[in-house]
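Hi U.,

Before I forget, here's the chain from the pilot set. I'm dumping it here mostly so it's searchable later in email.
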Amino acid sequence: MEVSTFLTDSHEVKCCTVLCIISYSLCMLFFLCARTGMNAAVRAVVRVGIYTGAKVYVVYEGYQGLVDGRDHICQATWESVSMMLQLGGTVIGTARCQDFRTKEGRTNAACNLVKLGITNLCVIGGDGSLTGANQFRSEWSELLQILVKAGKITAEEAKQSSHLNIVGMVGSIDNDFCGTDMTIGTDSALHRIIEVVDAITTTAQSHQRAFILEVMGRHCGYLALVTALASGADWVFIPEMPPDDGWEDHLCRRLTDQRSLGYRLNVIIVAEGATDRFGKPITCDMIKNLVTKKLGFDTRATILGHVQRGGTPSAFDRILGSRMGVEAVMALLEATPETPACVVSLSGNQAVRLPLMECVQVVCLHLSNWNTYKLLAHVNPAEVKSNINIGIMNVGAPCAGMNAAVRSAVRTGILQGHHMLVIHDGFEGLAHGHIEPISWAAVGNWTGEGGSNLGTKRTLPRSMIEDISLNVAKFNIHALVVIGGFEAFVGGMDLVTAREKYEELCIPIVVIPATVSNNVPGSDFSIGADTALNTITTTCDRIKQSAAGTKRRVFIIETMGGYCGYLATMAGLAGGADAAYIYEEPFGIHDLEVNVEHLVEKMKTTVKRGLVLRNEKCNPNYTTDFIFNLYSEEGKGVFDCRKNVLGHVQQGGTPSPFDRNFGTKLGSKAILWLTDKLKECYRHGRIFANTPDSACVLGMRKKALVFQSLAELKLNSDFEHRIPKSQWWLKLRPILKILAKYKVSLDISEKTIMESIIKKRGVI
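Structure:
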């Protein structure tokens, strides 16, 4: 990535740009900046722009291409943005641009836009790029006057291009832009970092070493902080939270304590911009010298550098870029001359529009991650015990991230003074007494381990209620954490129903959603789904590469999910699928015919490959074999077919950064909630919880972690098909079809209203 300095009249802004453009009569789009995941945004804007009837242009080499014009501004076609999703960086380039720092350079850029009839810009970049684009917009009228006076454009051309609309998308691996939960490129950077941390951990354990890793983050420590959470690091240094005076002694005590507990390694994460309270930089070498001289530990330092910016985009970044690209086009189509420059952002699972300059002015802090890390890593276990026993179990199919949730719950419980018990093999283990206490050290390395270390089964408790109640009493269990999928949800309700007969089950219960299917009512996301989605996406990339080499080949891929089409739909968006069949959207033989005809037409273009995803239970009659045979027969002579059933590979593997972080947060929050609930339910010397709000699902709704009672969620559940009755991701289905070039309508009835960041948060 290239970095340049763009000077305005009042201040200096860091600019990092990559450009792309659309023309829709007076409507044009345009892009800037290079991060992993940007190509998904470019692809989405180009294709949705063409879908709306626009001419779409890309500008090569960022602002420099905008200033130079000519061959740097080229019209894009549908096929020209194929096979981009899996590529890192930006295929349209970025460059340093000294010329754009000058009024003359910006005047030339304006001239190039006017000659092409471009009056709308879509800018992808960080706050410097977006601020620079806003400055360009504020000068627009003045620049037109200069061009008319110099005779470079006519008065009529100036009139037709009298205003310039701007929509921004934020691309920054630092996740340092206020107003959006995640910026394009951040999740991919975390994948690169965690891959390195996992690799280093194995050698560190072998040699009993301490490792210090420096990650990017000059002003924002998000990468360092989430890496510390996701890896269970012993210490983290970030710019926003300088360590207290005497941190050197505290750090050494912390590392010594860890070794005394039997740990064979230490991991310290440092953001490149970390300082002490006096502004003095804290570097890898400084920490290495401290640990080596004071403790005598064999210590190594690693600076990850630009490896964090590269590589294949994660599934999340591809979907984020695609969604932001679509929203950017919609924002430009709805823009008027009075519309202020805005950025399209992510809030929970919703796309939102925010005033550009307000976002630039507000400081971005990630306090929830910091508080969770401090709770789990920087506080000594409570000396006063509470005499409360909390049981933790896994239920249903295993998935990546379960162990992170267990680790977090165990350690948070110990910090609260509770006795933590683990239950092996789900409800069967609870019925058979497979219960034992667990210590702080026992879960030390669980964050990065896949599967379920506790063991898990799908068996529901209803046939074993009496045995379960006896063991709850025998082991004096006062509260229960059930981590799992739909079986955990139904099992929790079985326990609540049994409270009428078995008083021992009148204890607080919290269900934490953990399943690759993402089908637990009460949560937009489940632990494990992100890891499975990345596994499917990576497989689709390899399959598409194979199809690109052989030409005229269509692959039919079967994904997991039960009746829930989340994985098929989101993998379709991330992998650039031509179709994704799911239960929630019924289809028939006519739909299959349309899909085959679509692929036949596609083979006439330069893109001679196809990818079709099928959810495993989307239709009992239109099986994977049936669809494969149908496509093979109808495509005979035009394309041939192959099929793949991905199977249990989707449940395995090391957890993604999101699943590690998500599991850690849910586990900690569940225990804190149970601690408060136990105080409420303590009556006459014992725990008695029989109200509906004493048994809840802890899930993510939009951007908040919320508790919802099992009784309330029962009304929103389809128990026959094991899915919620309403699912947020179904609204993304039209985007999948539009990006695959189907002629479908895009519902824009729910227009995104621009929100004010300053009014919501205030300037920090």
